[in-house]
Amino acid sequence: MSHTIALMWDCNGLEAAVNVSDIRKQKMWASLQGKDVTKLPVEPNLMLWRLRAQANMQRKYEIYLIETDNDVSVDDIVDAFEQSPQQMADTVRQIGHKFYSDRRRDEEVRIR
Q: What is the predicted pLDDT for the residue at 3?
């Protein structure tokens, strides 16, 4: 079994990590039980994340969605980003689904 985690980082490091699957699951069960879903956590609005990234292009934001096993928590991912941010960013780029990226590659830079 797996879940989806939304990640957003910039040149300064990880800014957000949210388990989207857990929020959806909580809302579904609350709705089926007739409970008030407005008091539950809100899913991240990826379009607002993208708007923030586009308004701050100098920070080179990246937004990715990754599928992880249930054994991997958001806290595990946050800890990994704190310990080795470059390695985690490279890993997420390889295994994740890119939603948005302002990342510049060395070959795109003409004057260094």
A: 84
- Of 61, 62, 72, 64, nearest to 22 by C-alpha is 72
Q: Could you tell me if 99 and 64 are in contact, meaning their C-beta atoms sit under 8 angstroms apart?
A: yes
pLDDT tens figures, 76-110: 999 999 999 999 999 999 999 999 998 877 666 66
Query: Chain centroid to CA 50: how far?
Result: 11
SS3 assignment, position 68: strand
Number of domains in the chain: 1
> Which 8-state DSSP code applies to residue 44?
P
**Domain limits at 57?**
2-108
For the residues 59-73, what does the mean pLDDT come to?
A: 92
List alpha helices for 15-103, DSSP H.
Answer: 20-32, 46-55, 74-83, 85-95
